[in-house]
Amino acid sequence: MKIAMLSIHSCPLGKVGGENTGGMSVYIRELGRELGKRGHLVDVYTRIHEPIHDQVVELGENVRLIHFKAGEEETHKLELYSHLADFTRNLENFRKENGLRYDLIHSHYWLSGLVGEQLQEWWDIPHLIGFHTLGAVKKAVGIGEGEPELRINVERKLVKDCHRIIASTEKGKEDLITYYDAAPEAISIIPCGVNLDLFRPIQREAARCHLGLNGESIIVFVGRIIPLKGIDNMLKVMAHLEGKQGIKLVVIGGDDHSQAEMQRLKNLSRTLRIDESVIFLGSVKQETLPFFYSAADLCVVPSYYESFGLVVLESLACGTPVVATKVGCAESVIRYGETGYVVPDNDPGSLADKISLLLSTPNGKPDFVHSVRASVAKYSWSNISEAILEEYRSVLKDLSTKACKGAEEFRV
Ligand code: UDP
User: Fold this and answer.
1) Is the beta carbon of 224 within 6 A of some atom in ligand 1?
2) Which of 60, 150, 307, 367 could staple 33 via S-S, CB 3.0–4.6 A?
3) Is 219 helix (H, G, I), strand (E, B) or coil?
């Protein structure tokens, strides 16, 4: 199969943990590589970004990353809209010059969806979309940057026009139906995956020693530094925790674009008098994250909204329990009381109770670590990519059946 994958606003080679580069980039990188390993050809189209790469970069066996200009490096995500027509024309010229043909388009996020929709028309092939987040749901949550009506209107049109939507959770599917009137049969639920070779347990003391984090109870947060992630709430939780002097919250994520939010959080931790218990580390390469997950007593996901939350899977794959709010995959992945806890709301008291419970239970023992990791074994990228491939085949089959029926009707 030949697949055109669209990831316009965020490059899979970007610095993960920055403002615009998170789970979606990891998803595209991992999915592309798995598809490529199976002999499928994948071209991922994205915008040029810092640090500058060649226009065409090999991302893995049979997988290429192809860059075109869309605005400047500092152009805000929402302003990319006005550059999409140029981007699409450049992509089409490149395709023609190189004699490329694709079997299907898989676009990610609404901005890519718009490009995908134009290509769907020009190329007359199926178009699948993963929205990752939805404007109307973010608007309803009401935290962080306002979501423009333009985005929500575009999403509504894409939901109607594309051939299949891939949602990553049951809730994601419900949201598409509730907020966008999506047809249930047009939505398939396929969860995200985790790289089980990279995210594996490291003996806790060894991990702490490696990171120089000895002698404390450690809670780790990993993610982009944006208001939706609920780090402010987690700081309030820290103020609630008993024996907080012996607890360190390690906050991982953030780049130059996150300075204002980072400063707000630092100010809040000073106001709450917990600044000595919180370490803001900035972004950390994925290769180093297994040390942090393994060093921690638990990982916290205090978000107000997640479409999935890869961090949950990554922590569990390292054998570390998770305390999360009821967002994304948390309820379907975390086994309540066994591999962590999901709290029904963002109340700092409820989060603090569950965190205290886990901190008072010794949980770094090999049997426990092993069973926590085993609980996410089925989410290997290999399994998830197979499920996505099945989806591609099913869409192609549906369309060829429709085309045959159309031809028969024509003959009659
Ligand atoms: N991540 C990273 N380094 C960081 C912060 C985050 O590599 O400093 C990665 C993390 O491993 C995860 C992704 O960013 O794979 C975050 O994905 P998630 O789905 O949790 O959140 P999203 O970014 O989609 O909101």
Assistant:
1) yes
2) 60
3) strand
